[in-house]
């Protein structure tokens, strides 16, 4: 196997082992010694691929960013109306957390207790970026569909994101028994009831979001 491929494979293995440990040991702090044992290498070998444990966590956060925002772009390209766009993006976030229990602890912040502040800031940045994208979807609705939220766009989007973050938090707190997507469909209908109202008709325009572009730089892949 080429040397570059071996390096990527080992990095991938380390990140997968970290995600697995986060899943099977809820509430426990991950140590590099434990992670090295899980991977089957020495701690020194871990540091040849990642200079610190924080960088390993950052690798998982980068994986989240790549997985979520690449799919958001697909949704924006496939859907032209705001309500299905919002619904699919929120379900994407919840479904991703549900399928990746260990990583849901990072999204919830539970796994980052005692870790560097930079990691919590990075997760906050992820949510800020997602919130900005949702706001753009709402703004597009006024331009292209002549509808707008019954409250300010910022407040409306915050309600949606708070609901999703709450479901992820319940998932972690229940030790993965309370699925984020359980009963979400009926809850979504309630959230959407009265969410939009008619606005003054405007000439349709194309925004950055309609073209499938997100304002912030594209995240690196896990092995990058």
Task: Write structural notes for this entry.
The chain is mainly α. The protein contains nine helices and two strands, in the order αααααααβααβ. Helix 4 (53-78) packs antiparallel against helix 5 (82-99). The longest helix is centred in the middle third of the chain and has 29 residues, at 117-145. The two termini are 18 Å apart. Mean pLDDT is 87; it is low at 1-5 and 208-224.
Nutshell version of this structure?
This protein has 224 residues and is mainly α.
Judging from the principal axes of the Cα atoms, what is the shape? elongated
Number of helices: 9
- Largest β sheet strand count, sense and barrel closure: 2 strands, antiparallel
Could you list the spans in which at least 5 consecutive residues all have pLDDT below 50? 1-5, 208-224
Q: What is the C-alpha radius of gyration, as a whole number of Å?
A: 19 Å
Termini, distance in Å? 18 Å
In round numbers, the mean pLDDT is 87
The total strand number stands at: 2
In what range is the share of β-strand residues?
A: under 5%
Find the structural class using helix and strand composition. Answer: mainly alpha
> Helicity, in percent?
55-70%
Strand order, main sheet: write it out: 1-2
Order of helices and strands: HHHHHHHEHHE
């Amino acid at each position: 196997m080429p040397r570059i491929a071996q390096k990527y494979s080992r990095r991938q293995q380390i990140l997968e082992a970290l995600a697995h440990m986060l899943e099977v040991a809820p509430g426990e702090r991950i140590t590099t010694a434990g992670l090295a044992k899980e991977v089957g290498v020495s701690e020194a070998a871990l540091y040849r691929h990642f200079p610190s444990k924080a960088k390993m966590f950052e690798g998982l956060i980068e994986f989240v960013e790549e997985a979520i925002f690449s799919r958001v772009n697909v949704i924006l390209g496939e859907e032209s109306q705001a309500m299905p766009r919002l619904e699919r993006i929120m379900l994407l976030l919840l479904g991703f957390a549900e399928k990746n229990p260990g990583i849901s602890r990072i999204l919830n912040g539970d796994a980052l207790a005692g870790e560097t502040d930079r990691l919590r800031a990075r997760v906050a940045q992820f949510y800020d970026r997602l919130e900005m994208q949702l706001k753009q979807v709402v703004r597009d609705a006024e331009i292209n569909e002549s509808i707008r939220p019954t409250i300010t766009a910022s407040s409306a989007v915050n309600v949606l994101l708070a609901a999703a973050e709450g479901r992820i938090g319940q998932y972690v707190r229940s030790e993965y028994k309370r699925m984020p997507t359980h009963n979400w469909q009926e809850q979504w209908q309630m959230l959407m009831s009265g969410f939009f109202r008619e606005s003054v008709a405007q000439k349709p325009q194309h925004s950055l979001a309609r073209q499938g572009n997100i304002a912030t730089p594209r995240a690196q892949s896990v092995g990058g």
